Amino acid sequence: MIFLKARWTAFIAGLVLASSAHANLVVNGGFEDNAVANGGWNWFPSASVNGWEGSNVEIWHNLFGIAAPEGLQLAEINADGPNSGAWSIFQNLATVAGQTYDVSFFYRARVDNNESFNFSVGTLNALVNDHVVGQWSNFVGSFVATSAWTQLRFTSNNTGTLGNLIDDVQVNARTSVPESNPLILFALGLFGLLFVRRTAK
Fold this sequence. Notes:
Elements lengths: L1 H19 L19 E5 L8 E2 L2 E5 L12 E3 L11 E7 L5 E9 L8 E5 L2 E5 L8 E8 L4 E8 L8 E9 L8 H19 L1
Antiparallel strand pairs: 1-3, 2-5, 3-4, 4-11, 5-10, 6-9, 6-11, 7-8, 7-10
C-alpha cells in the first residue's frame, strides 16, 4: 500500500511539473554565458557569444547601476566595436510546424525614449518603439511555427553604439495545461489526496 501511495504521489508530482515546466528554446537568452565584472561591460563578436549570431553583442553587468531584470547581465543591441549596416542579432530555433510558442523579453531605453528596434520570430513581427529611460518594459507575444526552424531576430532602428537594452529572451512551446491556471493544478492535487485517503482505509 505504501508503494502504491508513493507511485501515485510521484505521478501527481509529474503531472504538476509537466504542466508548469518550460524549456526555453533561446540559448543564452539572459546573456549570462560571457562573464562580465560587476559594474562593467564588454563587447564580444557574436561568434563568441553562446547561441547568438549577427552583429557584436555588448553585455552589461550592473553598468551605471542598471540591474538586469533576470540574472546578472543584459545586452545592448547597439553594441560597441565594428559593424556594417544595422545592428542585428539572431538565433535559429528548432520548432515544430503547427505548434504555438509564447515569446517574451524585457527591453529598456539607454539614452532617450526614441530608441526602437524591430523584433521578429516566425510570423510574429513587431516594431518596439515605446522604450522608457530608467524603466524596463516586458514584451509578450505568440506565434505558430510553420517549419522545423524559426528565426528570432532583433534589429536596431538607431545608428551608433548607444541604445536598446534587452534581457531574458524566451520562446517556449505552449503546453496543454497553462501554467497560469491554478484551478487545474489545484484539482490535480486534490484528486491525488482523495485517492491516497481512499486507499489508506
